[in-house]
Design a protein that fits this description.
signal, protease, six-stranded mixed sheet, Peptidase_M1_aminopeptidases, alpha+beta, seven-stranded mixed sheet, Aminopeptidase
């Protein structure tokens, strides 16, 4: 046994596991290598002079602009909204426009609205009168009533209304670089949003006979004309939200004199509409360190008992916003404080408006949550640019520039549950966060809900976790999306699905993209690379119109991480993550001559271990005993596997030339583990392997998703460990949204079902398992 023989043997054995992997891979590669790692190609739009291949706006990028001068009045007796507006539209495109498209979103409530007819309906054996009444057509008179459309000179313009869209035909095309001024007079009946649904309208409080008006999507507003799709004139049906144009607004809001108004923009005439005491409090709030009540609870309660016969006009101006909304009521408390730090080069006012029933929660939390949200979002995206940010308690959740409507009311005794508190904080963060997506980073919500809801929900998760340690976030952590992703394929759609066609809207448009981004940040890219790229996207597309391709490209361009496989799987597909640890084989060497010969002996005896040999050997031994005892002694003493002095010298010479690490291998101090994995779910992801050692320590290896690029179904991986492994688990921190955790450990560690866990809990309490645990489980 020469030195070269030892070197050959150790080289062969060291390569054995790796060679086994390579030998197995080609067997199935022809049938299971798909396109999960191919570039997105035609799945996204081609780059051009308007949008670059890097994901940034191109050298010829353009977008339209629309400025508004609006006079609006609330008729509090009849719940009517009356308005007159002058629109100045700037054609910054390279195209002449022969007509303009405007949105009339309130027409979704019209008696003949399309969205009232295209949804499925069915009957049950038992139904209430209220349920059946919904099937009976009724003339309620909702929708935008256009009274006049004229140009700047007063000449009538031809227009056509198609449900929620209105086309204005121009006498001569609007040339590139030109502007067009026109005027519209209109009114609409404000809907009861509590009874009839909708994102805006009024809520009536019977106890004090007062109204809370949350006015949004209320004026004829310009549709988007863009480089990537022309006019965005897809109908508003209540599901897909908005695609809007940036511009400057001046809005005069006339309401009963005892109403309090909160709005997009900055009020230009607080001195005229506030009492001297309220004006003094407003000025004091500019320097206060805590939220200060501008309109107090006592003042709101007094106003609720009277109804003013006079009117006041509140004037607001807003620069570079895409929309305008406001709240008006006499039953509002208003508090405010300045955000003095955390927003680069800006100190916006954080403010809240809320009724007495929300006072216990909103007075304590709302404005502070608004300020916290502005700080966290400014850190991860782009500094908040606007002068104010408002949270309004309105028993719903909806967002507009600088103002949002949220929920969070105490019970009649002024108390509230933890669920209500955290739900309120979460919805305030979410709706205030929409100031960034899509009010600043102005994506097309009508087409891609996830670009505002998903991205916003992701940053909401970051803000929630920074608000409070172990905040009970509903969305963000990977394992929370697993139940949705394990649904049958016919109940799932890709994230890249139009809003109107999504069945599971919340999981698809909010939770799944938020989870995907969190996985990118924590597992695929790492926080440093992700945060830089995400912030770069927000910076590039602030006050512009991004598309999904711009987001995908920017995230790769700014990080040098190829993510096409990730976008394919998470955004364009419906596969789930289910990586199974199928088998573990361990190898350990010990090449000292004695051990090697002992191993050879065992292998030799195993090779000859059969019934015929055992019987022949017994006969042979009897023969030797009969012939000569000395022969028997010689036979028993001879060992063909004994290490000779020459072999020992050759090994010592061989061993002396090894490196310290090679000596560890030869001495058997390093164990090689060959792990076999299956991709049962179809969604390729990194493999996170946790090693639990007998000494109580742990270690995690992160195998990049690229391990699946040549075989998307099954892979093997060899690991070298210096400690003795007790058991192995993959995805120990539930980072990948794996839908079946029962196949994640070796040896297998099966999870108990919820029912089994309940039985265990009952037994630990000393209660009878036979006391109908199912009933208790259902009512907890």
């Amino acid at each position: 046994m020469s030195y070269s023989f030892f070197r050959y043997i150790i080289s062969f054995c060291l390569m054995g596991s790796a060679g086994f992997i390579n030998a197995q891979t080609p067997l199935n590669s022809g049938s299971n290598h798909g396109n999960k790692f191919e570039q997105l190609g035609t799945l996204i739009t081609d780059p051009n002079i308007f949008r670059t291949a890097s994901g940034a706006p191109g050298s010829m990028y353009w977008q339209q602009k629309a400025d508004y001068l609006i006079d609006v009045e609330i008729d509090d007796e009849n719940q009517l909204l009356k308005g007159s507006e002058t629109v100045t539209y700037f054609n910054n495109s390279p195209d002449p426009l022969s007509y303009l498209w405007l949105q009339l979103d309130d027409n979704e409530h019209s008696d003949n609205a399309e969205n009232k007819r295209f949804d499925e309906s069915s009957l049950r054996a038992k139904m209430s009168v209220e349920e059946l009444n919904k099937f009976v057509p009724a003339e309620k008179g909702y929708g935008v009533n256009i009274k006049k459309v004229v140009d700047a000179s007063g000449k009538a313009l031809l227009y056509t209304i198609n449900y929620t869209m209105m086309r204005i035909d121009l006498a001569t095309p609007l040339k590139p670089g030109a502007k067009f001024v026109f005027k519209i007079d209109w009114d609409l009946k404000i809907n009861n949003r509590i009874k009839e649904g909708g994102r805006a309208g009024y809520e009536y409080f019977a106890k004090d006979a007062n109204y809370l008006y949350t006015i949004a999507q209320w004026y004829p507003r310009m549709a988007v004309y863009s480089d990537f799709q022309g006019w965005q004139n897809k109908q508003f049906t209540g599901r897909g939200e908005f695609a809007l144009v940036f511009g400057d607004y001046k809005v005069n809001i006339t309401v009963p004199a005892d109403h309090v108004v909160g709005s997009t923009g900055e009020c230009q005439n607080y001195g005229e509409v506030l009492s001297p005491q309220q004006l003094a409090r407003w000025k004091q709030s500019q320097v206060a360190d805590e939220p200060l009540e501008i309109v107090t609870l006592e003042e709101a309660k007094v106003a609720m008992t009277k109804k003013s016969e006079t009117k006041k006009t509140w004037t607001y101006e807003a620069k570079n916003v895409r929309d305008f909304a406001f709240v008006s009521s006499r039953r509002l408390v208003w508090d405010a404080m300045k955000v003095k730090e955390g927003v680069e080069n800006n100190q916006p006012m954080a403010m809240s408006y809320y009724g007495p029933e929300a006072y216990p929660l909103y007075r304590r939390y709302s404005t502070k949550v608004v300020a916290h949200t502005l700080k966290v979002y400014s850190k991860y995206t782009t500094p908040y640019p606007y002068p104010v940010a408002i949270s309004v308690e309105a028993a719903n959740g909806m967002e507009y520039p600088m103002i949002c409507f949220n929920y969070g009311r105490a019970d009649e005794y002024g108390t509230y549950s933890e669920a209500t508190k955290y739900g309120m904080i979460g919805v305030i963060i979410h709706e205030v966060g929409h100031n960034f997506f899509p009010m600043i980073v102005n994506s097309d919500e009508r087409q891609w809900t996830w670009m505002d809801e998903g991205l916003n929900t992701f940053v909401q998760y970051l803000a929630e976790q920074e608000w409070e340690k172990d905040y009970p976030s509903r969305r963000g952590p990977a394992h929370k999306i697993a139940d949705y992703m394990k649904l049958p394929k016919d109940q799932l759609e890709p994230i890249m699905t139009n809003s109107e066609n999504i069945v599971q809207f919340g999981p698809n448009a909010y939770a799944k993209p938020a989870t995907a981004l969190n996985i990118l940040r924590e597992t695929v890219m790492g926080r440093e690379l992700f945060d830089f790229a995400f912030k770069e996207y927000a910076k590039r597309w602030s006050f512009k119109h991004p598309t999904p391709a711009d987001f995908f490209r920017t995230m790769e361009d700014a990080s040098a991480v190829d993510l096409d496989w990730f976008w394919r799987g998470w955004f364009f597909g419906t596969d789930a993550v289910d990586i199974s640890l199928d088998n573990v084989v361990s190898y350990r060497m010990n090449f000292h001559p004695e051990s090697l010969q002992q191993q050879n002996k065992l292998e030799y005896e195993e090779e000859l271990n059969n019934i015929s040999r055992q019987r022949n050997l017994a006969q042979h031994m009897e023969y030797l005993v009969d012939k000569d005892t000395s022969l028997l002694d010689f036979y028993n003493k001879w060992d063909r596997f004994e290490v000779t002095p020459k072999q020992k010298r050759e090994f010592d010479d061989f061993y002396s030339k090894l490196s310290s690490q090679e000596k560890e291998i030869v001495d058997g101090k390093i164990t090689f583990y060959e792990l076999s994995f299956s991709n049962n779910g179809g969604l390729v992801m990194p493999i996170l392997v946790e090693w639990n050692y007998e000494d109580g320590t742990k270690e995690i290896d992160n195998v990049p998703a690229y391990i699946w690029r040549k075989n998307e179904n099954q892979v093997q991986k060899v690991f070298a460990k210096r400690k003795v492994v007790k058991f192995i688990r993959i995805d120990p921190y539930r980072e990948t949204a794996d839908i079946d955790e029962n196949n994640n450990a070796w040896p297998r560690q099966y999870q108990s079902s919820k029912f089994e866990l309940f039985r265990q809990q009952q037994s630990t309490r000393g209660e009878s398992v036979g006391a109908n645990p199912m009933r208790e489980a259902q009512t907890r």
